[in-house]
Design a protein that fits this description.
The complex is a heterodimer of chains A (53) and B (239). By secondary structure, chain A is mostly helical. Chain A has helices spanning 2-10, 15-52. Chain A has one domain (2-52). Chain A contains 2 helices and no strands. By secondary structure, chain B is an all-alpha fold. Chain B has helices at 4-36, 50-77, 80-112, 120-141, 145-159, 162-172, 192-224, 229-238. Chain B is globular, with a radius of gyration of 20 Å. Classes of the chains: A mainly alpha (53), B mainly alpha (239). The A-B interface holds A 8, 11-12, 14-15, 17-18, 20-22, 24-25, 28-29, 31-33, 35-37, 39-40, 43-44, 47-48, 51 and B 19, 30, 34-35, 44-46, 48-49, 52-53, 56, 91-92, 95, 98-99, 102-103, 106-107, 109-110, 208, 212, 215-216, 218-219, 222-223, 226, 232, 235-236, 238-239.
Chain lengths: 53, 239
């Protein structure tokens, strides 16, 4: 099992390329998920401030 | 369906279960491709970048094609939701095209010996990325939303010529880039144990795009319809 994980991680020296691409991909996707949620939260906060005044 | 309040309610109901399904499909495809698909006899394991690179590139072009269709709708019928679609889809198209460019560069280093060549496929994809950036910039610089929509629609419709150029670049010019992986007219050029995980990844990417787009459209609708009664009611009930 440990050997399988090591092989998967190293990929005969090519793992750095594959894992780097996956990392970039997940960063971009997470960023795109996070931004709209932050924007909606901001709109709701602004609205609550306006209605509270 | 073209009404922003209807779409907003529909998207809000869809997202809580659609996003986890999208992620599950994507993760299954990636685990299968990266962990269990066989190595390529020529490239070894570095070919596994294909499971991110090809779906991103396909999506980058598909999103632009969709933007051109919605741009036409926006120009002809002045549909509000079509303009909102353009504004929401452009950053996503730029993101997926950027992933395709970066993953392509990283793949190019061990296989071609260089990060970048001014090859027809790479250069046309870079132009596609600049078109997306141009549309995003256009929206940021024009305060009037309707004018912004019309200008972005025009760029989307005119710029769509880049999509067939990207697709056919490997046939029209001599390039370092390999021929298209997916083709409607011919059978797959790879074995089924590589092709099926790739197909699942492509489906997963499309699902992720729909869920990201619905999220962005919800923000766009709330921002543009902020002064309408239904948005005020929604915000007051939900806060």
């Amino acid at each position: 099992m440990l050997e399988f994980i090591r092989d998967l991680f190293l990929m005969d020296g090519q793992g750095k390329y594959v894992w780097f691409v996956l990392l970039i991909f997940f960063i971009v996707i997470c960023f795109n998920y996070y931004l709209p949620y932050r924007a909606i939260r901001k709109i709701k906060e602004e609205n609550s401030q306006h209605t509270g005044e | 369906m073209g009404s922003p309040p209807f779409f907003f309610k529909w998207a809000s109901r869809l997202l809580p279960w659609f996003s986890p399904i999208s992620f599950s499909i994507l993760i299954i495809g990636l685990i299968w491709g990266v962990g269990f698909a066989p190595s390529d006899y020529k490239q070894g394991d570095v070919y596994r970048i294909i499971f991110v690179h090809v779906p991103s590139a396909i999506l980058g072009q598909s999103i632009y094609l969709m933007m051109a269709i919605f741009g036409s709708i926006c120009l002809i019928w002045r549909a509000k939701l079509a303009g909102m679609f353009l504004r929401s889809a452009a950053p996503l198209g730029a993101s997926f095209t950027l992933i395709a460019l970066i993953s392509g560069a990283v793949w190019g280093k061990p296989t071609w010996g260089t990060w970048w060549v001014w090859d027809a496929r790479l250069t046309s994809t870079l132009i596609l990325f600049f078109l997306y950036v141009g549309i995003i910039g256009l929206y940021s610089s024009i305060d009037n939303k309707q004018k912004g929509d019309r200008a972005a629609s025009l760029i989307s419709v005119v710029g769509v010529i880049i999509v067939p150029i990207i697709k056919k670049s490997v046939d029209w010019w001599q390039t370092l880039h390999q021929p298209s992986t997916f083709s409607i007219t011919s059978s797959p050029s790879m074995t089924s144990d590589m092709y099926f995980p790739l197909l699942i990844c492509v489906i997963g990417f499309y699902f992720i795009f729909v869920s990201l787009l619905c999220n962005r459209l919800r923000v766009e609708i709330l921002t543009r319809e902020r002064n309408t009664t239904w948005v005020k009611e929604y915000l007051n009930n939900k806060v």
